[in-house]
Amino acid sequence: MAVTDAIMDYSNNGHYSTADKAADVLAVWEANKDNALNLRFDHAWSGDTTLSPGAPLSGWDDGMWKVLPLPLCAHDSSYPLPECTVAHTMIRDIKKVFNLPNLGTDEEWADTYTDWAGTNFQNGESVGFHHISKNIASHPMALSKPSMVSENTADIDSSGGLGYPGHGPSAGTGNNIKCGLVIGLQGENLDVGVGRGMSVTVRPNDANITTYNNHYKALRDANTPAADYTDPPAAGAEYVVEGNLLLINYENQWRGTTMNTDTDKIYLCITWSNHTYAQIKTIMDAAIA
User: Fold this and answer.
1) Which of 209, 260, 265, 268 is the most buried (most CB within 10 A)?
2) Sign of the CA dihedral 173, 36, 187, 181?
């Protein structure tokens, strides 16, 4: 399979730039981060995600991964545009440019957004901030498959959660998060002076959940410290893609290319459990053709 089966960079095509809004969107996170929900992302590396997560390993402590769904961000009554905040505006603008699902009306994006977005969530779409602590011990390859979904993988309920690979809408029913459009806001330094670029490593040919789980089960059974966790052996080619607006296929192995030690990583994301990566990519490519 090709690298474009796993990831696409839409930040350098001249159709949309996040530069003019990135700092203000990050301020929305800062103003609302106390509403963020803890996520047990480390459960992906437990070796058996059909079970409830056990105690987190040191270095993957509770709270090192967080999600802040946009419906939990307070409506900024002083904001002059129809949307609740500038973060909502960025998402809406991106949806317009790329003709993505749930474009919405002015009224739906304003103070009724919570109810409307909640409906979207139940239908397989979630929108919000993702946060990764600078103190995590390691971040091995992730892989989202229906067998990874467990009702107890995250401290998030089904009405307000934000889908992360293996966690999200209809947890326990096999509706895994299939793909995500990820916007870098903080923590990676490809854009000099801005720090909102991302570097993601993907493996388009690595989608076998049994092989994946067996690798992590062996590490867990050996009482391996979180800092020493490794990626599963690659079955095919591995690629690195850089950009600040990336569409990522969560149904093959992927991870951030580098670990951060100086600042937390913060992203704004749209994720889908009702659309595959190929379906969203087709929509986006047609919109900018």
Assistant:
1) 268
2) positive
Name the residue with higher pLDDT: 208 or 158.
208
- Helix (H) and strand (E) counts for the chain? 6, 10
CA–CA distance, 148 with 45 (Å, rounded to integer): 10
* Helix 86-98 vs helix 277-287: crossing angle, to nearest 10: 80
**Taking the alpha carbons of 188, 191, 194, 197 in that order, is the dihedral positive or negative?**
negative
DSSP state of 147: G
The confidence score (pLDDT) of residue 222 equals: 98
What distance separates the 2 farthest-apart alpha carbons in the chain? 56
Q: For residue 259, what pLDDT is reported?
A: 83
Q: Name the residue among 61, 49, 46, 79 with its Cα closest to residue 174.
A: 49
CB atoms within 10 A of CB 65: 24
Strand (E) or helix (H) holding 37? strand 37-38
Question: Which runs of E-coded beta strand occur in 90-244?
Answer: 125-132, 179-186, 198-203, 239-243
CA neighbor of 190 nearest in space, from 133, 121, 265: 265
Which two three-digit tokens encode residue 245? 């607006």
Paired strand residues for 69: 128
- CA 51 to CA 216: how far, in whole Å? 14
- How far is Cα of residue 279 from the mean position of the Cα atoms in its chain? 17
Helices (H), 128-276: 209-221
Secondary structure (3-state) at 131: strand
Beta bridge mates, 39 = 154
Helix (H), strand (E) at residue 266: strand 265-272
Q: Which of 171, 175, 144, 145 has the alpha carbon at shortest distance from 160?
A: 171
| pTM confidence score | 0.91
